[in-house]
Amino acid sequence: MGSFDRLTRAYKNAKTIPFDDQSKFIFFSDCHRSDNSFADDFANNRNIYYHALKHYYQEGFQYCEIGDGDELWENLSFQPILEAHKNVYELMKLFHDEGRLHMVWGNHDMVYRNPSYVEKTLSSYFDPKTGTDVDLFCNIKFYEALMLKHTETQQELFLTHGHQADWWNYVAWRWNRFLVRILWKPLNVMGIADPTSPAKNYKELIKVERRIKDWIVQNNNLMTIVGHTHRPRFPEPGDIPFFNDGSCVHPRSITGIEIEQGEISLIKWQVSTKDDGTLQIIRVLLEGPKSLRDY
Predict the structure, then answer these.
(1) CA 25, 242, 168 angle in degrees (round to 5)?
(2) CATH code, domain with 130
(3) For residues 29 and 228, is the Cβ–Cβ distance under 8 A?
C-alpha cells in the first residue's frame, strides 16, 4: 500500500465533525510531550503551550490535536509523561469532559491506534496521595483522521498527521521507534539529529510534502491540514490547499492553526519582553485570516 492509498484510507475512515461559522477550533500537533528529561523538547515551551491552551478553553474553542501529542518513542510508558506535565493533562481533561477534545494519532504515538491500549493507559491514573485511581480521559478515542464538514456549505476540511506519506514513519514505525530509543536519543545530547525524521531532514520533508500535495490535487483540491514535518504552511486561495500547523517544539515558540467565524489563520504563541523587562506570552498572527469559502 502506497502513500496515496494510506491517505485515501484515512480520509474514508475519518471521524466527521460538523461545524458552522460560529464554531471555533484550534489545531496543534507535534507537541512531543515527554518526561522532562534532557530529550524533552516540549519542556522548553510547556508554559507557552499551557497559557495558549487555557486561552482557547476559556474562549470556547474545540481542540484538535493532529498527532504526536505524546512522545511514546523515547518513553516506554505514558506514566512519566503524565507526572512531568500533569497540569497540561488536567487542562486537556476539561476539554475532553465538555466534548471539545478531538485526538489524532501520529507516528510517535502510533500505539494509540489500539483502542484497548488507549483505554488501559489514558482512562485513569493512580494517585499516590489518595491511594486511589483518578479519572483522566474516560472513553477517549483516537482517530487516524478527522473530517470537519460545514453544515451549510458542505465544505470539507481533512485533518490527519501526514505520516501516511512517509513510509519510514508509518509502515516501519516500530523499527524507527527502536532506533530512536537506543541510538538517536543518546546521540541527541551531542547534537546529532535523527536523519529519518522529516522535521530534521530537509530532503525527506520535501518528499513528504510533495506526496501530500499530489494526493490533494487528485482529490479535487480537498482542503487538508497536517503536521509531522514541523514546517508551518499556509497557502493563498487558489493555490493547492495544503496547510501545516507547524509544531509545539519550535525554539521558544509554538505554532497552530485557528478557525473562527468561518476564517482560518496561522498563529504563533511566544514569549515577549515588555519595556520594563518583564516577560509575557503573546499571540502573533502569522498568516490570515482567510475565508474558508475562498478555498
Answers:
(1) 105
(2) 3.60.21.10
(3) yes
CA-atom Rg of the chain in angstroms? 18
- List CB contacts of 127: < 8 A, sequence separation 6 or more: 133, 134
pLDDT tens digits for the chain (295 residues)? Answer: 677 789 999 999 999 999 999 999 999 999 999 999 877 889 999 999 999 999 999 999 999 999 999 998 888 899 999 999 999 999 999 999 999 999 999 998 989 999 999 999 999 988 877 788 889 999 999 999 999 999 999 999 999 999 888 766 666 656 677 676 665 555 555 555 555 555 566 678 888 899 999 999 999 999 999 999 999 999 999 999 999 999 999 999 999 999 999 999 999 999 999 999 999 999 999 999 999 999 9
pTM over the 0.85 mark: yes
Per DSSP, which regions of the chain are E strands? 15-19, 24-28, 62-66, 101-104, 124-127, 132-135, 142-143, 145-150, 156-160, 223-226, 242-244, 253-260, 263-273, 279-291
Q: How far is CA 130 from CA 125, 126, 127, 134, in A?
A: 11, 9, 6, 9
User: Cis bond leading into 289, ω under 30°?
Assistant: yes
Give the number of domains in the chain: 1
What does the alpha-carbon distance between residue 191 and residue 193 come to, in Å, rounded to a whole number? 6
User: Interhelix angle for 86-97 vs 46-58, to 10°?
Assistant: 20
| 233: helix, strand or coil | strand
Q: Which domain holds residue 170?
A: 3-294
Cβ atoms 231, 244 nearer than 8 A: yes
Instruction: Put residue 230 in one of left, alpha, beta given phi > 0 → left and psi -120 to 50 → alpha.
Output: left
| Spatial separation of the C-alpha atoms in residues 12 and 33, rounded to whole Å | 29
Q: Which residues pair with 18 in a beta bridge?
A: 149
